[in-house]
Amino acid sequence: MISYIIWNASPDLFTIPEIAGLGPFTVRWYGLLFASAFLIGQQIMIHIFKKESKPLEDIDTLTLYMVISTVIGARLGHFLFYEPEVLFSRPLEVILPPYAGLASHGAIIGILTGLWLYSRSRKATGQSFLWVTDRIVILVALAGTFIRFGNLMNSEIVGRPTDVPWAFVFMRNTEYLQIPRHPAQLYESISCLVLFFLLLWVWNRQKQSTPQGSLLGIFLVWVFTLRFLYEFLKENQVAFEDNLALNMGQVLSIPAVLLGIYFIWRSRRLPAQPASPSRL
């Protein structure tokens, strides 16, 4: 007997009725999860800053860099990798809502760029580029958990047809036939959650003695090796990928994995960043 899960969850959490001529406003699961990733991540970063005696007043600035670089990077990445014709013909769509397309590879490029800009003026406090990225990837892994679960609530980025007993039938996705499919969003969400706990455990054991670049390397290898493999279970996002041996997600994952291997190798050759003096 073939069993599967009927997935008919609404992407909307609740609706705020019209007030004083404004609204109504609908709060969606994806937006709430996206925002929660930043809010919870900020609290974790405060904990890390306290443990490693870094200036807490930098947290708000770091959060601002993360929000801006993530959104801009993800939007630019989506249009550059998947809809380049829109990027050049209607560039304002990158910054104007609704934000219907976000690319994780673009988000990573944006985050790394933003952290490089942030760290340039904070080397005196021990916040080098590699120190910051090694800590931020812990939060990015958690954000990946939330965002991919948001994709599940939206019934988007669906998997290919399958007869596994945990297959989902996405009733609200009218683009594809409503037949059992791999819940690829859930696979990636769970993988990111495992990575979050792994990175947090590694950091908690070593803290300021963490080899520079090691957590960044682990993150890149873990996320994009699995991304490469999961793409075999997912439907292509855009039509031109149907004619490619590897889809765009897989092509972009290869250099990310190689970069991760480089950072792991490099971290074994560099000393850990010296501990900052304790702050009273």
UniProtKB/TrEMBL annotation:
Keywords: Cell membrane, Lipoprotein, Membrane, Transferase, Transmembrane, Transmembrane helix. It is an enzyme of class 2 (transferase). A 1,2-diacyl-sn-glycero-3-phospho-(1'-sn-glycerol) binds at residue 148. Coiled coil: none annotated. Pathway: Protein modification; lipoprotein biosynthesis (diacylglyceryl transfer). Its EC number is 2.5.1.145. GO terms for biological process: lipoprotein biosynthetic process. It is found in: Cell membrane. It is a multi-pass membrane protein. The chain crosses the membrane at residues 29-49, 61-82, 94-117, 129-149, 184-203, 215-233, 245-265. One of its GO terms (molecular function) is phosphatidylglycerol-prolipoprotein diacylglyceryl transferase activity. Its main location: membrane. One of its GO terms (cellular component) is plasma membrane. It comes from the Bacteria. HAMAP family: Lgt. Belongs to the Lgt family. Catalyzes the transfer of the diacylglyceryl group from phosphatidylglycerol to the sulfhydryl group of the N-terminal cysteine of a prolipoprotein, the first step in the formation of mature lipoproteins. This is Phosphatidylglycerol--prolipoprotein diacylglyceryl transferase. It comes from Rhabdobacter roseus. The gene is lgt.
